[in-house]
Design a protein that fits this description.
Elements lengths: L1 E2 H13 L1 H16 L12 E8 L3 E9 L6 H9 L3 E12 L17 E14 H23 L36 E2 L5 E2 L1
Parallel strand pairs: 1-4
Antiparallel strand pairs: 2-3, 3-5, 4-5, 6-7
Helix pairs in contact: 1-2, 2-4
Amino acid sequence: MYDILDVIKNIDNLYENNTSLAILKDFERVLDEMDMYVYENWDLGELAYGPQVDRHWITAGFMWPKDKMPNPTAAKRLSELGCKIKYQRSHLVEPRRIRTPEDIRPGTKKGRLDRHPIWIVEIQMPKKIAFDIYRGYMDKLKNEDGETKAPKPTTPLPAQAGQAAPVAPVAPPVAGGAPAAGMAPTAGAAGGAVI
């Protein structure tokens, strides 16, 4: 049985401890890279406890309402990587919203505690998997940054439709001489050739 206060304290500790939050982000990156969220209800899970870091393993537990059990087929993807998955039925104790006097616990001003059935999925992931995927992710970002910052070679633009191709500059004709190489004689006003 899990208490909502314990879940809230766990999340509060995550935000206070940058290391735990970074480990949880690496954990989630593995789930994302393995396309776990494509499967039914995997995107609805909430962190129940963890991440707990051991020598070779990272363990985290996620919870779902009883009627929204995550698809077990997705867990096969993780088990192929060496992860250990455990499904467990449990209950979550939450205070009731106070709408009537019957919703109040006797002798207090707090709401009655209700037990809601949930699914707990505990995932034990090898540290190596989480950090290898993180390393690959960082390498990918470095490669993308390197491509955007690398100078691009200057190549002439191809002529667009309807436009003439660019022409190399040509030396002007010399008076009284033959036309320069690559220049054709042009017609003058009297119809004769102008040199």
